[in-house]
Amino acid sequence: MGADNLAVARPWLKRVAERLEQAHDFDDAMDVLLDAAHEMGFQGVDYSYVLATRIDGAWVAPPVASRAFPSGWERQWHRYSADDPYYHACLEGRPWVDWSEVQARRDLTRRQRKAIAYLKDVGLSTGITVPIRLNGGRLAFVTGVQPSSSAPDIAADRLLAMAHYFHGFVQQQHLLREWQPTVPLTPRELECLALAARGHTALASAARLHRSAETVRLHLKHAIAKLGAHNVTHAVAKATRLELI
């Protein structure tokens, strides 16, 4: 069912759609998403979109736009985001991911448990994440976080419809082009990207930085993952567009 038909089938979603039509940019659309989430009983919401979930087998850390999340929650999140088990569960085929169910799993890795612990420490312990799986390995998702231990099915069902409608809207209106999320690259990652932008190979950059070529390649690999890029050239282009280098 298309986004317009989805709104017609659900009167409450039609009201949200009317508010989205008044949005002038991505930030306005996120504010509408937050208002809708509040009406469903969620205290905060986020949205993410990645062109690829994995590069060379490694998880790509998704950029996140959030509203009404605890202040400073993202400060160290880049250390854990690629290991976010809620994000990983988005690829398992379920319509939504209940955080409490993921937390109870026995197959979580040590790094996934650290990601959960970080989120709990900053006040993000319960939520529902709705994946929007797209062609070509792309993925978008919307999360509603809440104070209670679990969301009633009606809230999860509404968030499911809202997430798909929201992504369809911001994509159709080309609002994603305006979204430039903050990418927490380290100074060394930025330095390696800047040298790559000037045409330096990993070996040449290593000589300038007095590091090994393998260390430079590792910094570049991390930068590629954080930027959601496909390779060094793509990462340089994205970093330049975001005015990071």
Please provide a written account of the structure:
The protein is of the alpha+beta class and 245 residues long. It folds into two domains: 3-178, Beta-Lactamase; 187-241, Orthogonal Bundle (Arc Repressor Mutant, subunit A). It is 48% helix and 13% strand. The protein is built from eleven helices and seven strands. The chain has helices spanning 3-9, 11-20, 26-40, 85-89, 99-103, 110-121, 153-172, 187-197, 202-209, 213-227, 232-241; strands at residues 44-50, 54-55, 58-59, 64-67, 97-98, 127-133, 139-145. Strands 4-1-7-6-5 form a five-stranded antiparallel β-sheet. Strand 2 (54-55) and strand 3 form a beta hairpin. Helix 3 packs antiparallel against helix 7 (153-172). The mean pLDDT is 88.
Features of the shown structure:
2 domains, Beta-Lactamase, Arc Repressor Mutant, subunit A, globular, two-stranded antiparallel ribbon, 13% strand, five-stranded antiparallel β-sheet, 245 residues, alpha+beta
> Would you tell me the overall average pLDDT?
88
Question: Helical region count?
Answer: 11
Helical residues, percent:
40-55%
Main-sheet strand order equals 4-1-7-6-5
Task: Report the CATH architecture of the largest domain.
Answer: 2-Layer Sandwich
For this structure, the CATH topology of the largest domain is: Beta-Lactamase
CATH class of the largest domain: Alpha Beta
- Relative strand content: 5-15%
Give the biggest beta sheet: 5 strands, antiparallel
The topology string of helices and strands comes to HHHEEEEHEHHEEHHHHH
